Structure prediction request, 522 residues.
Amino acid sequence: MNMIDGVLLVVDAAEGPQAQTRFVLRKALEAGAKPIVVINKIDRDNANPKKVLDQVFDLFISLNATDEQLDFPYVFCSAKAGYAHLEIGQEGGTMDPLFDAIVRHIPPPRAKAGNGFQVLVSNLDYSDYLGRIALGKIVEGKVRVGETACCLHGDGRVTPGKVTMIYHFEGLKRIEITEAHAGDIIGITGFDDVFIGETIADAADRGALPYIPVDPPTIQMEFAVNDGPLAGLDGKLVTARHLWDRLKKEVRTNVALRIATTSDPKVFAVSGRGEMQIAILVEQMRREGHEVLVSRPEVLWKQSPEGQPLEPIEHLYAEIPKEDLGAVMENLSHRRAQITAMNHHDTQITIEAHIPMRGLIGFETDLMNMTRGMGVMSHLFHEYGGDRGEIPARKNGSLVSMENGDATSYALNLIQERGRLMVAPGDKIYKGMIVGENAREQDLPVNPCKAKHLTNMRSQGDGKGIQLNAPFKLSLERALEYIDVDEYVEATPDHLRLRKKILDGNQRKRSERARNIRFVNP
Prediction:
C-alpha cells in the first residue's frame, strides 16, 4: 500500500460488492489512496449497474469514508468486450474513458526530486543470476546503474553495496533500465541481505525511512519426507534434498518464513505467520511434483524472565453480518479471546479481539461456515502474553487402518457404523492411514480391506446392495487444522491422505499424545 497513489475498485455489475470487497476497500481507504469505482460486466443479462453503484456508495458510508472519498468517480465497462462508458446506455467504444479517468483523478506520485535517492523496500524477488531483487518506490531523487549505495537495516546496521541492475515494469513485464527517477516503482539488485521495510539510499547520512517490521513467526510445522508405502507413486521430488532445496528457495523471497533442520535428517521445521501461509506453500509444492508430510501447526512460545511460558497473542479483526454475532461470539469465547471493541455499521459488525494464536487455528473455517461465506477476518501480531489455558481441540478419535490393500465396499459398510468415512471403495490403503473419524474419543483400529468370503451357501444378504455414505473429504487447509499432534497430512500431486506419524500400531501405543510447547530460540 505504500507504493500506490490510487486504486481501481472493480465490482461485478450483477453480483455487487462481496465480503472481500469490503476488506480490500477498507485497507485502501486507510492508506489514503484515491479510489475509482469500475462497474464491470455491464453486458451480462442480469446486470444492474445503477443498483450496484448505490450499493458501493452504501459500502463507502459504512466504512466511514470522508466527504472527499465519497465523491468518487465511476466508470461502467465490459473488460471482455473491451469498452468503457461514463454513462449507462451508450453502445460500443473503447477503454479510453477508463484510462482518461486514471490520468484525471489519480494524483501524481508522492515523491520529490533531488540529488541522491531513497527507496523504501516493499517486496522481494529473486534471480538465480543476480541474487535478491528489492522492489520499492523511489521516494526521493534518482538512481543509476553502477552507483554506490547502502542498505539501512531496521536494527540500525548499514551495509554498503552497489546498484548492479535496475528493473522497470510495463504491465507484467520486467524491463532493464539504466536510470530511474522519483515516483518510479523499480527493482534494484546488489543487496543480498535486504528485507521488506528497510531503506536503500545513496549514503548513510541521508537517513532511513520509517521502518515497517515484519511480524515474527508464531507457529511451526514439520515438513517430513514421505516414508509411507505409497511414496513415490504420484510425485517425482521425494527426497530430503529436494525438500530442503525447495524450502531454501522459498525463504529467499518470503521473509515471513523461517526454516531449520532438526535432529532427524528427514524432518525440517518451518515457521510462519499462520497455517494459511504454510498451506499455500504446500499447495505450490504439490503442483511442482513434491511429496511431503506436514504436521499440525504448533505455536511458538517464549519464556518470561521469571521462567513462565508466554504465548503469542494476535489482534483479530472480524467483519460479520449482524445475525451471526451470537454464534461468532460463542466460538471466540471457547478460543479464549478477549473482545476489545465492537462497532456496528448498518448490517455489518466489526469485532476486534485479542486471541491466542492457538485459538486462531481453524477459526477461519468456522467463521466461513457460521457466516455462510460473508465473514472476513485478518489478524496482526499483538504481544507475547501469559498462558490462557487449554483450548478445546478435536473431540473425536480416528479410524486407523490395520492392513494394506484396497478399500472394499463390504468392509467400509461395517466401518461406517463406527463413524464417518474419509475413503471410498477402491482407494489405496496402508497400515497406519486414517480412513475415517471415530464417533468416540479414542482411536480405533479397523480393517477397510476386508473382503467377503465366498461360499456355496446361500445367505439372506445375497443380492442386497450396500449403501455407503459419501466420504468426508478435507481440503488442505482444513486437513492441517483437523489432524492431531500425532498425525501427518500426506500431500502428493494427486492425493491428500491423513496418517499417523508412527504407522506401526504397537509402537504407537507406547507413545502418548501430550500438549507440546515449543519455545522460540533467543
The chain has twelve helices and 32 strands. The CA atoms of residues 167 and 176 lie 5 Å apart. The radius of gyration is 28 Å. Residues 309-386 form a domain with the Alpha-Beta Plaits fold (CATH 3.30.70.240).
